[in-house]
Design a protein that fits this description.
The protein has about 575 residues and is of the alpha+beta class. It has a domain of about 220 residues. It contains 20 helices and 23 strands. Helix 2 packs antiparallel against helix 4 and helix 15 packs across helix 20.
Length: about 575
């Protein structure tokens, strides 16, 4: 089945065409759009100067302030990232990892940056099996077995922008907002309250009872070991000191100075594995983005060890279908998207790990021929039966920035599970990730644990290009849901002509995991018509109806750029605490 290519209809972006061929933009009315009965504002914020979208309003404001002060897109991204690392600890901290796509408007270059940490030199399968473990613990000191890469990512991106982009602001100024919120406090959001409350569940001692870790309890919970209420002020003085050192002394202070020494000392005093050598030898890596064509666009993502290959494989499969003819939100649409996801995930689970340790045939997996071979396996009347459950993945934040010069950044930052390992290194305020707990202790598994290895990462920021320039900067949090939600955003904008905000507002689905558990069902938001849900069940999908706007589906965001008018349209997710704003 060949798709008939089409362009995004200007009408959906509030554009009225005039006789001289120049588009005149007007704000769409609040009632316009198929999904405007949502909790969101149902508007696409528009600007010609710069745009920021993130899953927290304070972080977005920090980025806009940097753009307004003359900083470039990378500067603003660092300000957003640093602020999120303070006020959104349930999803990311400076003890985690990040991945970047950076578009340089002056050179026309798109670069990828992998700032994920490697496992420690002492991290071996035998280390865990001799202690009686059949799998790496999800929480605790043995879960924190990879070096945090976040600060190295900020540093590498800043050095690149300073050398290759104009208007770089002083490094220290980019962390000012984060330091202020850590030192003076911020109002606890519904999201932070919710995840803090869940993680004081004493009935789940192994995974959810994080108050058993003294520093976690001291930093993130009340003296009584309870979650802070919505609107309470949360201060993190130790983290403020750490950020101030990084601001004044640079990134090396985190990996080779007193901060690293304190983190390592606390880990080793409690049976952890990371060493000072692990920290001092860490560095972020510049990588070449991978891509596939989708209609008249080119979709870019990050190469392994991220699951960007899966996100692109889904689009590569969909290229062989006339998606528009299925109808947006129809049973056929949901069925096709899930079936394409299953095929892409099968490749991902077979191959994905650190490419320095195993060859991954990307050229073949992303080829048109492979997409065609996958497409013919899809039966539009019957769901494929999975032979094994999908594994639980984790939590993260995606955010995007575009500046007045046209520089663009798509970035994801994460600590894996909500609150990561649960370990806050003493006297640093640094909450450490548990990303390394996804390594397998089975030596036959492609992603088995080895020293100095990067694990399979769910993180994959995305960008859609048109004529070699950014058209859509987009992404989402949500582990297994990231490739699926990315595909939803692209198809709804490119194939069905929805605006960015409507594309994100629209009902979503999730094939695979739920928070902290393996599952093999198809979760779908309750707003979907009951007749469609019943049809999906008839086709063999194990459908589970969830809340209308559940953050199980992740918090997505997007910025669309109109090449002719240079207008930018921002969008954020009504399922989270986010904000899209320009200046």
């Amino acid at each position: 089945m060949l798709l008939k290519p089409r362009t995004l209809l200007p009408l959906f972006l509030g554009i009225s065409l005039v006789s001289n061929g120049v588009a005149a933009f007007e704000l769409p009315p609040k009632t316009e759009g198929k999904y405007c009965d949502t909790p969101s504002r149902c508007l696409n914020p528009m600007t010609q100067q710069g745009m920021v979208t993130s899953p927290n309003y304070l972080a977005t404001q920090a980025g806009v302030d940097v753009l307004r002060s003359g900083g470039n897109a990378v500067d603003a991204t660092i300000a957003v990232a640093a602020t999120l690392a303070v006020i959104y600890p349930q999803m990311n901290t400076i003890g985690g990892d990040n991945f970047w796509l950076i578009y340089n408007a002056r050179t026309g270059e798109l670069r990828g940056l992998n700032a994920s940490g490697r496992s420690g030199e002492n991290a071996t399968i035998e280390t865990y099996t001799k202690r009686g473990y059949e799998k790496i613990p999800a929480r605790g000191y043995l879960a924190a077995n990879t070096v945090p890469g976040v600060i190295s990512g900020w540093d590498a991106a800043y050095r690149y922008a300073t050398a290759n982009m104009s208007n770089s602001l002083p490094w220290e100024s980019l962390l000012a907002s984060a330091i202020s919120y850590a030192e003076n406090g911020f109002a606890v959001t519904p999201s932070l309250h919710y995840w803090s409350q869940i993680n004081t569940d004493q009935q789940d001692k192994e995974f959810r009872d994080l108050q058993r870790f003294a520093e976690f309890k001291r930093v993130y919970l009340t003296a009584a070991g309870k979650a802070y209420n919505i609107g309470d002020t949360l201060k993190q003085p130790d983290l403020a000191k750490t950020l101030r050192i990084i601001a004044t002394q640079g990134a090396d202070s985190f990996y080779k100075g007193d901060i690293a020494n304190k983190i390592v000392a606390d880990l080793q005093a409690n049976g952890g594995l990371l060493t000072q050598a692990d920290f001092s030898q860490h560095k972020a890596t510049w990588v070449t983005p991978i891509h596939v064509n989708y209609r008249e666009y080119t979709a870019y993502n990050l190469p392994p060890n991220t699951q960007g290959m899966a996100s692109l494989e889904i689009l590569n499969i969909l290229n062989n279908f006339d998606v528009k003819s299925l109808g947006e939100g129809s049973a056929d649409y949901y069925h096709l998207m899930v079936e394409a996801t299953k095929l892409a995930f099968a490749d991902r689970d077979r191959y994905l790990t650190d490419p320095d340790f195993n060859h991954i045939p990307l050229d073949s997996l992303l080829s048109k021929r492979h997409g065609q071979q996958q497409a013919v396996q899809i039966d539009m009347h019957q769901a494929r039966v999975e032979v094994k459950p999908l594994d639980p993945k984790g939590d993260t934040v995606w955010f995007g920035v575009i500046d007045s010069q046209g520089n663009a950044v798509s970035i994801i930052q994460s600590i894996y599970h909500d609150f990561g390992s649960g370990i806050v290194a003493k006297d640093t305020g640094v909450l450490l990730q548990n990303r390394g707990s996804f390594f397998s202790l089975d030596p036959n598994n492609v992603n088995h644990l080895e020293p100095r290895k990067r694990t399979f990462h769910t993180l994959n920021p995305a960008m859609l290009m048109q004529n070699n320039r950014p058209y859509l900067v987009y992404g989402t949090m949500g582990g297994e849901g990231q490739p699926q939600t990315q595909a939803a955003i692209v198809t709804r904008i490119v194939d069905f002509g929805l605006s960015p905000q409507d594309a994100i507002n629209a009902p979503r689905w999730l094939h695979g995991r739920t928070w902290g558990a393996s599952s093999n069902d198809m979760k779908i938001e309750g707003r979907v018509d009951k007749g469609i849900i019943e049809e999906l069940k008839k086709r063999g999908h194990p459908v589970k109806v969830v809340d209308d706007y559940t953050d199980t589906m992740g918090h997505a965001g997007a910025i669309l750029i109109d090449a002719k008018t240079h207008l930018m349209f921002g969008a954020t997710d009504p399922r989270g605490d986010g904000l899209a704003a320009g200046y």
